[in-house]
Amino acid sequence: MGNIALGAACALVFVLLPLFKGRGYRQLCFATTNIGFAFWYWLPAVRMLNVPPTDGTTADITQNSLNVSAWIVLAANIWAALFLITSHVVRARLLSSSGAMASLALAVCFLGSGTRSILLMGIFVVIAGHLVRDRSADAARAQRARVSALRYWYGVLALIILTTIGLALSVRFESAGSDSNFLIDAVLNNNDMLRELAFTESQLADYSSPNVIDFVLTPLTFILPSFLGFEKAIPDHLLYFNYSRAGIDLVLGQGNVFPGIIADFHMVFGALGPILFSVFLITFFYVAKLTSTLLPNPLTRLTFQITFLSYLFISFRNIQGALLLVLILGVVLIKLTARPAQYRRSSKLIAKNARMS
Known about the structure:
Elements: H1 2-16, H2 25-50, H3 63-94, H4 97-113, H5 116-131, H6 135-175, H7 182-189, H8 193-203, H9 213-221, H10 236-246, H11 261-269, H12 273-292, H13 298-315, H14 321-356
Helix pairs in contact: 1-2, 1-3, 2-3, 2-13, 3-8, 3-12, 4-5, 8-11, 9-14, 11-12, 12-13, 13-14
């Protein structure tokens, strides 16, 4: 049953890919979300669901918990996709002037007639509008596709370079006496958050979080100094998970293990976890977009967005909220210090022109 969820996740990406084919921020958000799911959950799931490791790390995990965990991850993946579609595709089209006029006309017709035939006619008009296209636009699109074909070869070259680097690292770690292959550890073991989610489902199913405030505040306040009044409270579910999983007492600073972000939401919020996780993703994307608008240069803005979203990729393992606060603070300071300088330059030019005249 878990493999069905894995196949459904792959099909979901291919079905939604045409909606996010245009280059831009929404494509970057779509790629970040699905790469995060693939690297931290679905790629390790291929091994865990079919050829589980025999090194003793899965002794407390049942096959049923693995299957249930795969469906929990799929639910989070579907909800994230729905929120992305609503936020970046449907909203952009409905809020346009033509989309608003069409929606208003359809609503008035439906309210006036009260029949479903009006809605069916509206659906037919939408489909027909997509089928009937301007041939000149198709020709221009084909020309752009031919021009951009060379970029795919650059992608192939980059893949070859990355593969060579991966093999070199594998040889390095094997020569250093590592017990297992570096690439296998990197893509199947060290990133296996599905295993941790399955552990919570198998061994901690009866757990109920007593407090969600610490879960929200900890990622944002943990690196902030306590002498300024910030309390480094560790969420109860992390204390419970670490002690149950590896006998680690986080209060004594004996190390830590991460349950993964979906297990975090699942342990704290239960059945609402996948939905609230999707809300977290959309909020993350919105904050990145809103903050990046403070940067005037397009290249700097894109660089900030990529850096910001890279933390989201890592946050699939554990949330890194405090580091994002530092990034936002830097952008705000750049905005605040850049404007006075711009005004000073303008005033100098005005004074210079006045003297010349």
